[in-house]
Amino acid sequence: MSILNFKRSKPKSIADTGTTAAFLQGYSIEVMPRTAEKIEDFRAILPAATRVYIAHIDGTPIEDMVATAKRIADEGFPVMPHFPARSIADRATLADWIARYRGEAGVDQALLLAGGISEPRGEFSDSMQLMQTGLFGDFARLHVAGHPEGNRDIDLDGTQSNVSKALSWKQGFSDTTDAEMAIATQFCFEAAPVIEWAEALRTSGITLPVHIGVAGPAKLQTLIKFAIACGVGPSLKVLQKRAMDVTKLLMPYEPTDFVAELAAYKAAHPEFLVESAHIFPLGGINATADWTATHGTAPARLRASKG
Fold it and tell me: Which keywords does this Swiss-Prot/TrEMBL entry list (predicted)?
C-alpha cells in the first residue's frame, strides 16, 4: 500500500480500523503542575504504567516540578519531566535539577528539548548540549523532540535542514548511551504529512521510534489557540476548515480519525517508526482519559464504572 493509496482510503471512524486500541496501548500523556493538581488520583483515570510527561513551562519553580513528579510517581506511574535547555542557567543548575528529581521522585526518564523561549538564559541553547554534559548517564530513557511539520524557530527558511541534522546527531548519540531513546513530537492534526515525514526519517537512516503528538479532545477555539501558540504547521488547516462549518463549530474536536489513520498505516507497515501516541490533554486531563477509555485503553476500575 502506497502512501497515496492510503490517503484515498482513510477510515471514516475509529471503529473502521480495528487497530486503534492496539495503537493506543502504551500511550503517554503530558501534564503541568497546575493541571495535575486538579486530578485527585491518576490511578482512577489512567491505565497502569502510563508514562506521564511533566511540561516545564518557563518560570515554573523547580520545587513545583519535583513535587508534581513525586506525587505522580508515588501513585505508580513512570514520570518523564521536561528539561528545557534554554531555561537552564548552567551545568550546576542542571545537576541540581537532576539530583532533586532522582533523589526525591526516583526519576530516571527525561525529555530533552531546547524549550519555548527564543533566547537562552544561560550556557545551553539546545538539547544536544544537555546530552553532552554526561549528567544523564544513568537515566534509563531519554526522549528528544521531533517536528513533523518543521520548526521555524530552528529552520527560518521553512525547510527541515537543521532539524534533520539535529536528529541525525541524536541518532548517533543513541549508539553511545545505554538509555532507551525515542522522538516525541509536537501535536499534529493530519496523518498523511506525519506518515510522509516518518518514512523520510527511516529512509535517511533514523531508527529512533516516534511517539507522535496527539491533541486530546477540546473545543475548537481552544485547539486553534494552542496550535498557533505552539507553532503547529500546515495541519492547522484541518482545524481552520472545520471552523468554517457552522454545524461543527460548537462540537468538541476529537483526534479519532487522525489516530485511526496512523493506526491503520502502522498495521499495514510494521516497520513504520511511529510506535505510539503522546497525548496533549488540551481540553482537560479527564476529557482525554475518557476518550482513551472509550477507545480501549481504560484502567480496570474506569471500565467497570462505565459498565
Answer: Oxidoreductase
Q: How far is CA 126 from the centre of its chain?
A: 18
Instruction: Please give the chain's pLDDT, 307 residues, in tens.
Output: 344 444 434 444 444 446 899 999 999 999 999 999 999 999 999 999 999 999 999 999 999 999 999 999 999 999 999 999 999 999 999 999 999 999 999 999 999 999 878 899 999 999 999 999 999 999 999 999 998 875 555 544 454 656 788 899 999 999 999 999 999 998 888 899 999 999 999 999 999 999 999 999 988 777 777 656 655 555 556 655 655 554 455 567 899 999 999 999 999 999 999 999 999 999 999 999 999 999 866 554 454 454 4
CA distances from residue 47 to 55, 110, 196, 287 in whole angstroms, order as listed: 20, 20, 31, 15
Strands (E), 3-124: 28-31, 51-54, 79-84, 109-113
Q: Judge contact between 46 and 77, C-beta under 8 A.
A: yes
222 contacts 263 by C-beta, under 8 angstroms = no
Sign of CA dihedral 279, 285, 287, 290: positive
**Residues in contact with 49: Cβ distance below 8 Å, sequence separation at least 6, in sequence order:** 76, 77, 78
H helical segments located in 161-299:
161-174, 191-203, 220-229, 236-243, 246-249, 256-268, 285-292
Of the options 3.40.50.410, 3.20.20.220, 1.10.287.130, 3.10.20.340, the CATH number for the domain spanning 18-291? 3.20.20.220
Contact between residue 170 and residue 164 where contact means Cβ atoms under 8 Å apart: no
Domain locations along the chain = 18-291
